[in-house]
Write a structure and sequence with these properties.
Helix content: 25-40%
CATH class of the largest domain: Alpha Beta
Largest sheet: 6 strands, antiparallel, barrel
Strand content: 25-35%
Number of domains: 2
Radius of gyration: 26 Å
Number of strands: 25
Shape: elongated
């Protein structure tokens, strides 16, 4: 506890830890309500992670129907209802446009700056803060959150910086981010500060991250990109198609799109999304993924296609026949897996064709880990949302302490959803912190 708590000044002061997306939006909302705001940022500039999102273009939100939005939130979607419906995608797009960053909507309802420059998103936020009572202090890491007790209630008093300075505050907003892309300053500081106050932490893991595979054939296909394939993530306790009683076990994830083979395993949009459903901490044995290379064809249509190719040149080897269906390197691997690649096409039986079709539609891949936080787009885990009021983002056990953005145990698919979570929770935390300070 911080015993040297001073009387509050007339103008309410809010300290925000972190000048990322959530922290900057919180500052905008709080200063709009008339609060004095100080942002403490450990690095040399604001919005470092914003600059690298969307490959430098910044996919700042997703313009899908608001009712569909929650379907893209993987962890704790219900916690977001108040924040999201209080400050949705249309309001974010209007905010950016009003502050000098016009936006455009592309494939998949992904929203980007018209300029294609992520720096314009940060510039819009900083532009909004100009002329308001907001101070940003760079190279100013925070050591701990200071509290005091009043009438049996623990309340925020301010923060202590790493240099030992005490900064008084009527409210503190924790917006330190998670652990992904630690080079941007996200190193899990918020977890440590919250844990010191007795707030529960859900173990942080990389999410939206490339996946390491145990299968050597994946590595041999390094650099090969596939389109229009289907990827299914099985549950750790068995095959997603395995029957449990009379019902089939529902897979953790099933998606259609693009993927990429790498020197360590697999990546690409399909794989990144699938990774958000994996926890190698809970299931170190790994996950079986199932790759359907021809999802647009039924088993019967695929078998008929293979028979046509065999009939066209019965003297060819099956490995050569498969080149009419797949890129050369992939056809070689399928031929090897099937065990009939060196056979003459005319010698292959109907049963073997049926088995080959089964393999093409269900190639197993054993996922044994991820590439870690340095390559993860977001963090899975963080501050337990049960410790926070979803209607205000205020901590239930420490009055005047709020949290927003990736530091919370909330994450979503790629496509602008995670930044929208940062905008929505940051805006709600900023507004409520200012109101609470006024009260």
């Amino acid at each position: 506890m911080y015993d040297d708590h001073k009387k509050k000044k007339h103008k309410k002061h809010i300290v925000i830890i972190g000048a990322g997306a959530a922290g900057l939006m919180a500052a905008c909302a709080a200063s709009d309500r008339g609060a004095s705001v100080t942002i403490l940022e450990k690095t040399e500039k604001a919005g470092k992670k914003i600059y690298i999102t969307g490959k430098g273009r910044c996919n700042l939100t997703n313009a899908c129907d608001p009712q569909d939005f929650m379907g893209h939130v993987v962890t704790n979607p219900k916690f977001l209802y108040s924040a999201f419906y209080g400050y949705d995608q249309q309001q974010v797009m209007q905010f950016m446009t009003d502050n000098g960053c016009p936006v455009k909507t592309e494939r998949g309802d992904r929203v980007f700056p018209v300029s294609d420059h992520a720096s314009d998103v940060t510039r819009a936020l900083l532009s909004h803060l100009k002329g308001r009572d907001v101070r940003i202090r760079y190279h100013c890491p925070v050591k701990r959150i200071l509290t005091f007790e009043e009438d049996g209630t623990v309340r925020v008093a301010g923060v202590e910086t790493q240099s030992g300075e005490h900064v008084d505050a009527d409210a503190v907003i924790l917006a330190t981010g998670g652990c992904s892309y630690p080079s941007t300053g996200s190193e899990g500081d918020g977890y440590r500060m919250a844990e010191e106050l007795g707030i529960g932490i859900i173990k942080a893991e990389p999410s939206l991250v490339p996946v390491a595979a145990a299968d050597a054939w994946c590595m041999r296909l390094q650099g090969l990109a596939l389109k229009n394939v289907e990827l299914t993530l099985g549950r750790p306790d068995g095959d997603p198609h395995q029957k449990s009683g009379k019902k089939k076990k529902k897979p953790l994830y099933k998606g259609f799109g693009e993927m990429l083979f790498t020197h360590f395993g697999i990546s690409g949009p399909l794989v990144l999304t699938a990774s958000s459903y994996m926890s190698f901490h809970d299931h170190p044995e790994g996950y079986t993924m199932h790759l359907n290379l021809k999802p647009a064809l039924t088993p019967e249509q695929l078998a008929a296609r293979i028979r046509r190719e065999i009939d066209a040149a019965p003297g060819r080897k099956m490995a050569t026949v498969l080149r009419t269906l797949f890129p050369q390197r992939l056809s070689e691997e399928i031929a090897l897996m099937s065990g009939i690649g060196e056979r003459t096409a005319s010698s292959v039986t109907d049963k073997e064709i049926e088995e080959l079709c089964g393999l093409i539609r269900d190639v197993p891949i054993l996922a044994v880990g991820t590439r870690g936080f340095s390559e993860a787009i977001v963090t899975r885990g963080g501050l337990d949302v049960k410790a926070f009021d979803p209607s205000t983002m205020e901590c239930r056990s420490v009055r005047g302490l709020y949290a927003a953005g990736e530091v919370l145990d909330v994450d979503a698919h790629t496509g602008g959803f995670n930044l929208q979570i940062a905008w929505s929770t940051g805006h709600l935390a900023g507004e409520c912190a200012a109101e609470d300070a006024e009260d």
